[in-house]
Amino acid sequence: MFTALKKGRIAALGVIAVSAAVALAGCASGSSSPLGSTSSASASAGAIVVGSQSYYSNEIIAEIYSQALEANGLTVTRKFNIGQRDAYLPALQSGEVTLFPEYTGNLLQFFDKTTTATSADDVFAALKTALPANLTVLDQSQAADQDSYNVTKAFADANGVSSIGDLAKVSGVTLGGNAELATRPYGPPGLLSTYGVTVGFTPIDDSAGPLTLKALLDNTIQVANIYSADPSIGSNNLVTLSDPKHLFLASNVVPLINKDTATPQVTQIINKVSAALTTADLVAMNGQSTVDQKSSADIAKAWLANAKLF
């Protein structure tokens, strides 16, 4: 009989193979845009330019936005897989990209590293005042997909760990995540200042993807920063450490938009999407991407058909 750990390794390796194939397909597209692939050689005049991070879940949401707008007769150009905030936020401010799915807590901390807001409503209110003058956010969704620290069940059981603070009693712990986590407020510095936890750090730049999961299951790292709506948490029986001191801010899905694009029609369409989207939807759609290997376009189309918004 396979143990849960062996099943996790097999699942991780399978996802790695799929990710490699997707990466090769992306390279083969031949896009010359510094911001990633587009749906056409050049953006159509007056088109709404929808962007996404280099994170499959974010791309699914961006595709939902795109198809919802197109279903209402609007022209959309896609610029997906741009990267991290230091790459795409300047593009939003310049108007090269005009609409982007974001996450309230992390976006707030990008602009205000000293914020004291932690709850969903307080974070959203603070975010609206922290944004650059030509950017705004539309309605936040109840759907949340935020950073979380996860360990294997074997590690949790062996060390009596259930919360982030419990890591203080374990020596030789290494945290894994994207390179920028090293200096984020909730990274190693925040672990030390908030919980008195000292960790080593290994950068793994796949946005909590299969390489991060494999490193955790192989015990190369002992703690992994994995987004809370990632189905690999449940499928690999991982333990998400509780965060009673709110090291992580609430991070609800929120549309970030250049004000020139935020017309009443666009606002109404995207707000309908936000009102319907749930965390359970994110987990299910993420599973369709990583396990069922469906495309973002097909996943988005099915969600919109089921939601019956338009």
Give me a quick take on this structure.
With 310 residues, the protein is an alpha/beta fold. The chain is built from twelve helices and eleven strands. It comes from Subtercola frigoramans.
Protein architecture, described:
It is a single chain. The N and C termini lie far apart (48 Å). Helix content is 43%, strand content 15%. The chain contains 12 helices and 11 strands. It has helices spanning 4-28, 56-71, 85-94, 104-111, 120-130, 153-159, 188-195, 210-217, 232-235, 264-276, 279-290, 296-307; strands at residues 37-38, 48-51, 76-80, 99-103, 135-137, 147-151, 174-177, 200-203, 223-227, 239-240, 253-258. By secondary structure, it is an alpha/beta fold. Keywords: Signal. It comes from Subtercola frigoramans.
**Strand percentage, roughly?**
5-15%
CATH fold label of the largest domain: D-Maltodextrin-Binding Protein, domain 2
Number of helices: 12
The major β-sheet equals: 5 strands, mixed
Q: Portion of residues in helices?
A: 40-55%
Overall morphology: globular
Low-confidence stretches: 1-34, 36-43
Which structural class is indicated by helix and strand composition? alpha/beta
Number of strands: 11
Overall CATH class of the largest domain: Alpha Beta
Question: Which radius of gyration do the C-alpha atoms yield?
Answer: 19 Å
Mean pLDDT: 88
In terms of topology, how is this protein built?
Blueprint: H1 4-28, E1 37-38, E2 48-51, H2 56-71, E3 76-80, H3 85-94, E4 99-103, H4 104-111, H5 120-130, E5 135-137, E6 147-151, H6 153-159, E7 174-177, H7 188-195, E8 200-203, H8 210-217, E9 223-227, H9 232-235, E10 239-240, E11 253-258, H10 264-276, H11 279-290, H12 296-307
Parallel strand pairs: 2-3, 7-8, 7-9
Antiparallel strand pairs: 1-3, 4-11, 5-11, 6-9, 6-10
Helix pairs in contact: 1-8, 2-10, 2-12, 4-5, 11-12
